[in-house]
Specification:
Elements: E1 20-24, E2 30-35, E3 40-44, E4 60-62, H1 66-73, E5 83-87, E6 95-103, E7 107-117, E8 123-124, E9 130-131, H2 134-143, E10 181-189, E11 193-200, E12 204-211, H3 218-230, E13 239-243, E14 250-253, H4 261-266, H5 275-294, E15 307-309, E16 315-317, H6 345-350, H7 355-370, H8 382-390, H9 403-412, H10 423-431, H11 433-437
Parallel strand pairs: 4-5
Antiparallel strand pairs: 1-2, 2-3, 5-6, 6-7, 7-8, 8-9, 10-11, 11-12, 12-14, 13-14, 15-16
Helix pairs in contact: 5-7, 5-10, 7-9
Length: about 450
């Protein structure tokens, strides 16, 4: 389904459309195949699909959400009439045709058409025209509009999947040799250390975080990092490997093209990031955090500086769990670098970190989103913030913030942790925001 360039001798390269024989699919992430020219090697499972299945079609996107379908179809490379088919979120086994459209009332939009099944295995959108399969349905609507908003043009371009490992050889290796990494461009620095764009073995772009010397126990770090590597979700930055044999410790992760969300927001000089974009980002972050919540994993440092931005406003949660394993004295409630303004009062005052203290931090992150990167509690130092928050002070609604967003901020800042919303609730709320909360919202000119 995609081109792939082998990264090690045990892998094999291929181009989109190449056919291969499957020899072994016992490993979840890497399949052993034989190419038509006799070459054998491993390939990443999410780059290939079995022939003559829906998964092998360019237009089939599988189990993606309605919101993700809309985001993909509104990318600049998806012209009007571009389309995809996804599995229904509410009715597994049922499919939906999604089409990029533009009309007078909604402007640039995506229309969703339920594909209904026939008892004989066929399918249809309108009962007067039935098809034997989805491929026949697509071909028909590429020629005739017939009840759709417009004729179908091209399948929505599919972004390449994120690799689960650096290569098949590192799938069971957590520690990799430091000399296989090349640090290139400094992307940023923070309380944990510096982050560089780099490459692994000269073939694979990665982000490399260098941790400040003496900032943590190597043994403790490795214990926690093993857990962090097992966490897999498309809204979490993928953790690939570490280098701990000497200092500074390196953490190797998926590379996100546009850096931290904080810098991204502050650099938006022309206000190209609209309120709908910001709401969508909130939804994506809540999705990643809902996954951590389901694993009972606490982030401890959720803030815009620890969210990374990819292409087309895709955002992912980074640095989950790192705050817990820092030995640095500065990174405790009395230290200069402790993020008091992002931390729930029960965590800052009594060290009671929980998923609910992460929810408090998410409320502060909403403030950062709506103010495009302003520091929370403007004009107040950490000591004053702690005192005022304990007395019940909460920040006012930022300028141009929709009421529905500010309501959720206040709920996240409830003094009683158990009365704060779950991340699952927050994800659903922001994912459906312009359907259920503000269906008539329009951007001001």
């Amino acid at each position: 389904m995609y081109d792939y360039q082998a990264r090690t001798e045990s892998e094999t390269s291929f181009s989109k459309g190449d056919q291969m024989e499957l020899l072994d699919d016992s490993h979840a992430d890497w399949w052993l195949v034989r190419m038509r020219d006799g070459r054998e090697g491993y390939v990443p499972y999410n780059f290939v699909a079995r022939m003559d299945t829906m998964e092998s079609q360019d237009w089939f996107f599988g189990k993606i959400t309605r919101k993700d379908a809309e985001r993909l179809l509104k990318f600049p490379e998806s012209p009007l009439g571009s389309f995809l088919i996804r599995e229904s979120e509410t009715e597994p086994g049922t499919y939906v045709l999604c089409v990029h459209d533009k009309d007078a009332s909604r402007g640039d939009c995506v229309k969703h058409y339920k594909i209904r099944r026939l008892d004989n295995g066929g399918c249809y959108i309108t009962s007067k025209t039935a098809f034997t399969n989805h491929t026949e349905l697509i071909r028909h609507y590429q020629v005739k509009e017939e009840g759709l908003c417009r004729k179908l043009t091209i399948p929505c371009p599919k972004p390449k999947p994120v690799m689960q490992d650096l290569s098949v050889e590192t799938k069971d290796l957590w520690e990799i040799p430091r000399e296989t990494l090349q640090l290139q461009t400094l992307l940023g620095s923070g309380q944990f250390g510096e982050v560089y764009k780099g490459t692994w073995k000269g073939t694979t772009d990665v982000a490399i975080k260098t941790l400040k010397q003496g900032s943590m126990s190597v043994a403790h770090f490795l214990q926690e990092a093993q857990i962090m590597k097992m966490l897999r979700h498309d809204k979490l930055v993928r953790l690939y490997a570490v280098c701990t044999k000497e200092e500074p410790i390196f953490i190797v992760t998926e590379l996100m093209a546009n850096g931290s969300l904080l810098d991204y927001l502050r650099n938006d000089k022309f206000k190209q990031i609209t309120i709908p974009h910001l709401i969508d980002m909130a939804s994506q972050i809540a999705s990643g955090m809902a996954y951590l919540e389901s694993k009972n994993f606490i982030h401890r440092d959720l803030a815009a500086r620890n969210i990374l931005v990819g292409e087309n406003n895709i955002v992912k949660v980074a640095d989950f769990g790192l705050a817990r394993i820092l030995d640095n004295e500065e990174y405790n409630p009395k230290g200069a670098r402790f993020p008091i303004k992002w931390t729930a009062p029960e965590a800052a005052l009594r060290q009671k970190f929980s998923v609910k203290s992460d929810v408090w931090s998410f409320g502060i992150l909403l403030y950062e989103l709506m103010t495009r990167g302003r520091i929370p509690y403007p004009g107040m130092d950490n000591k004053t913030v702690l005192e005022q928050v304990e007395r019940g002070f909460r920040m006012d609604k930022p300028t141009n913030t929709p009421d529905g967003v500010y309501t959720k901020m206040l709920e996240c800042w409830h003094e009683k942790p158990d009365l704060r919303p779950t991340f699952e609730h927050l994800f659903i709320y922001f994912d459906d925001y312009f359907i259920s909360v503000e269906p008539n919202y329009r951007e001001a000119d």
